[in-house]
Amino acid sequence: MSQVVATGSIQSTLLSPDSGSAHDRAQKLLKLATFSSIVYPLEGNKCSKLGSRSFHISARKSAPVEVVPVSPKDDSKIEEHLQHLRGVQQFGDASAGMWSKPSFRRKTKIVCTIGPSTDTKEMIWNLAEAGMNVARLNMSHGDHTSHQKVIDLVKEYNAQAKDNVIAIMLDTKGPEVRSGDLPQPITLNSGQEFTFTIQRGVGTADCVSVNYDDFVNDVEAGDMLLVDGGMMSFLVRSKTHDSVKCEVIDGGELKSRRHLNVRGKSATLPSITEKDWDDIKFGVDNQVDFYAVSFVKDAEVVHELKNYLKSCGADIHVIVKIESADSIPNLHSIITASDGAMVARGDLGAELPIEEVPLLQEEIIILCRSMGKAVIVATNMLESMIVHPTPTRAEVSDIAIAVREGSDGIMLSGETAHGKFPLKAVKVMHTVALRTEATIPGGQLPPNIGQVFKNHMSEMFAYHATMMSNTLGTSTVVFTRTGFMAILLSHYRPSGTIFAFTDEKRVQQKLALYQGVCPIYMKFCNDAEATFTRALDLLQKQGMVKEGEEVALVQSGRQPIWRFQSIHNIQVRKV
Fold first, then answer.
1. Could you confirm whether 178 is annotated as catalytic?
2. What is the pLDDT of residues 366-378, one digit of tens each?
3. Average pLDDT, the chain
4. Which of 149, 155, 178, 265 is catalytic?
5. 108, 172, 379, 416: which is the annotated catalytic residue?
6. Mean pLDDT: which of 131-135, 171-175, 268-272, 485-489 is highest?
7. What CA–CA distance (Å, rounded) separates 424 from 430?
8. Where in the cell is it found (predicted)?
9. Is 379 a catalytic residue?
10. Is 474 part of the annotated catalytic residue set?
11. CATH of 456-574, one of 3.40.1380.20, 3.30.70.20, 3.30.450.20, 3.30.750.200
């Protein structure tokens, strides 16, 4: 059967240079009361300017093609297939160039939560080979002994792997409000009365403890209480000095230590608890690469953590998790203070109306892109694969949307932590991301990434290196000791892979998160030309570039290597 391949060129005033600075556009988007009005308002037959999209669709029949394989080992097999897909797409943009070539290395990075299903040496090796780029430690579960085991295994893998590296992310528990222990699960039905109390050790058929002493003060009659993000819901009817009496709205099975949210409210707890500080010190001792900080409400939390890390001499990047209602008004300052953000859609959808979550996701990605920050989309991406071997079609679309919106990373939680099919989940995520990236137009004008790099010459060179890479269809080679230039290039999203050579192991690991960056550890020598030659030989030996292929070599950044501070250059070299 012949196949019709349709491609769309999407122009949005959201990213138009005529629609104001990236900062101004992002600020306009971050007014909670106007999320819906930004996208949906209609005046007569005219769409709102900010939400408008114009689509140009072209279709061409192609020869029958095979389904894209689900393993990264099969990447070489789909080269011809991807070339064909690129070939039939006509984007109508001359900047793509007649020499434009596809890139077959997946650019969007995969974050995997490690848990009981995957905390063995064999599974961590298999996850890495299947496509994992970042190993996430969820400090809400397990103890330091179990997490130490995982850290040691990841470091062992990194020491042995020749052409791959896995970063380590420590995700703090944060100020979670949870129900207490129950002797056995309780089945609750709609209309039934149920009580939550701040008294310790209560666990009966009609009452359970809560681990938060101010819980009674934070809720009012009429509030909606959600269990596990909405799996069960309770309407608050009344309260006493130590108890909250509720009516079951959506029943189900209540188990021990379930997560509790109040719709539209955040708990009046510090973002970093005493347990979190212990976990953060554990991360410093083990030299993790990233902290994902839960329930960040303002920038002061980020400053406090960064000051602590500076006092420890720890070079660990801080990723803020956007998951509470209180974080939205302060979104710009929070992300400015951080090294990146995670769209934690579970709690975000519990504290805010669920219809706002996809709008917030897109807007957070746009804001992070405009500010040169990493961004990860998380929660429920392949939730059904916790118990099923194949995903729902909606989940596949969810991954594709996050990739097309420009997320640096996409995350698996329970799917790999305690799911039945962790490797299949990673392979599905890898395949969907790779297939989606093959349809994203290359050679487009890089968007203005905002004010964060405005006073540095490197931004101009990153821009021109991206344009050169896109026009000639080349990969980009950069040498870095801090990761700065590789990260800057990543945010411009060149069509080719960014091969980032560094002689710092920690920098190599951090770069594993950033979109399109292939971090490679290599010792530098004093002779620049000899180092360039060694780097290109290494790429050729590992099959990352071919003989006769051209690459764009960039020398720029904050810390000069083999150049004077005032000299920046871009070269095109043939392998």
1. yes
2. 999 888 899 999 9
3. 81
4. 178
5. 379
6. 131-135
7. 10
8. Plastid, Chloroplast
9. yes
10. no
11. 3.40.1380.20
